[in-house]
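Re: folding output
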Amino acid sequence: MSTESAKAGLSQEAIVAQFQQLRNDQRNLANSLNTLEMDLREHKTVIETLQSADPERKCFRLIGGVLCERTVKEVLPQLVENKDFIAKTITMVTEDLSKKGSELNKFKEEHNIKIRGEHLGAEGAKGSDAGEKAEIRNVLVSN
């Protein structure tokens, strides 16, 4: 009987570990998406600036940690190409993020995982006193 309870405990621990791994993967994808969106904004700003500049004007581009001197007409097509690639990558990462979210929700439902404070957070926002707003922390509970 003790081996059965040990097996069940390990199984629950494995389930929790897998759930935490899925959540970490989802966070990593969200961080990557955020970084890519910042890069896209930066590329758009630089492209807008360079389009108004003289095509023969000198500009500098950082390539692999090395600052290279080029002209605007050489750099602008490369930047546009990079911007398009970043936009495509953002689309792919967004799709991966939504897939990971549905995989995470499916895993939660399959293993009946509830997170303490998940539903409490929405109800706590309706509360009136700031004193009632004690620090709420999410706690993973597996049944």
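--- second protein (sequence, then structure) ---
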Amino acid sequence: MNPIPADWALSTTHIASEYVSRQFSVLIGVGPKVLPPIELDVVLLMACSTLARMLAEAYRNPEALQMMETGLKSGREELLLARFPPDRQIILERPAVVLDKFGIIVLWYLPGAIDAAIQGRWARVSLAAQ
């Protein structure tokens, strides 16, 4: 059940985010299949599906970071990097998640995740609000 009143613009965002979350769970194999909500138009449904697929692809492509300093002492960090250069650089060319040394996701890399049609809608809404 949607806790946000239906006449609020945030209601559509809530419905869309719930759909993306459930679809993501299906795609990574931890949730049951879901039907698309009738409140969302076709363009938004397609954008939600694209985002869910990209999130799932990123989740299935983890990249682990090497042990690094916290970045709080820039001089020390530069000295350590000069003395112990990283054995590799992470170059992300497809959707991925970056994990810290404990396996915790610290970054989601999602190129093109926001559909062009949705970006256009946001731009029009932003311009109208000015």
